[in-house]
Amino acid sequence: MNHTFDVIHNIFARTKNIMDVLKVVTENSLKNVLFIHKNILQQKVTKENPKTPHE
């Protein structure tokens, strides 16, 4: 719980108004979505093209 509080506190400490907070939260969310999407695509490609032992 302390970690969550620290993260939220740090976001508010670096901002001048609520719009800055929303910007930081949105950017972080988009980065997470892109990272998750990339991993899902990578897993799909790996499943579709498994390497054979002699490759």
TrEMBL record:
Q: Which domain of life is it from?
A: Bacteria
UniProt name for this protein: Uncharacterized protein
Q: Which organism is it from?
A: Hungatella hathewayi
